[in-house]
Amino acid sequence: MTGPIIAVTVWRRALATGLGAQTDLYTLGGEYADSVQAAGGIPLLVPDVVDPDVRALLSRVDGVLLSGGQDVASGPRDATEHAILTEAQRIGMPVFGICRGLQILNVHRGGTLVADLPHTSDHPAVGSGEERLSRHRIVDGAGWVADSLPDDGVVNSIHHQAIDRLGAGLAIAARAEDGTIEAVAGTDTSRFLRAVQWHPEKMPGVEGRAHATRLLAPFIAAADGYRRRAASTPRDKEFV
């Protein structure tokens, strides 16, 4: 049997291409797909979709990974991801969020965001060079976070928004040394719901890739369990 299918959200934006002008593209760092596959899943990239189509979409996958990208700003991607979260929670589908994925999850649950995180040594200004991958240490990490981290507990920082007021049904699972919330999990332990503020898929080297695999493997396992349960209990007949 092959691995579970993981819907991965993407970023729609205009970028310059070899065609000589900016082109409307859906984009996603290749590391996301690589990390999902390394952890045993099959990535399926998901563009913006209208709310009525989300139910049909999720009837064909086994888990959702909300990827990073632009700010949460009430655009078409926000609408897609809110609809996906609503349906995923209705059917109990496993969800994992990365960076923006953590932020949209928190907003979906009624929480708020720091619009522009004050600069600290842990979270310096986001630039265009190597400083974009500045490092900081994770502290107060729950077991699932601590068990995945590199030995030094250090991860990357590529964001300027962060959780302010925590959303309903979420628990803090880790912080950075400056107090910024770096990971959350759902309080309903019967459903898999986790998110991190850093980018595990962009951690460098062999140890970085191993960290991403350790972090995502429980999510992929939960998606596989969801798939097996769904196989024994037919999903909504309209989409079978």
TrEMBL record:
Gene Ontology biological process terms in this record: polyamine catabolic process
Pfam family, one: Peptidase_C26
Keyword Repressor: no
Coiled coil: none
Keywords: Glutamine amidotransferase, Transferase
Record-linked InterPro entries: Class_I_gatase-like (IPR029062), Peptidase_C26 (IPR011697), PuuD-like (IPR044668)
Single annotated GO MF: gamma-glutamyl-gamma-aminobutyrate hydrolase activity
UniProt keyword annotation of Transit peptide present: no
Any Gene Ontology CC annotation: cytosol
Protein name: Putative glutamine amidotransferase
Species annotation: Leifsonia aquatica
Lineage of origin: Bacteria, Bacillati, Actinomycetota, Actinomycetes, Micrococcales
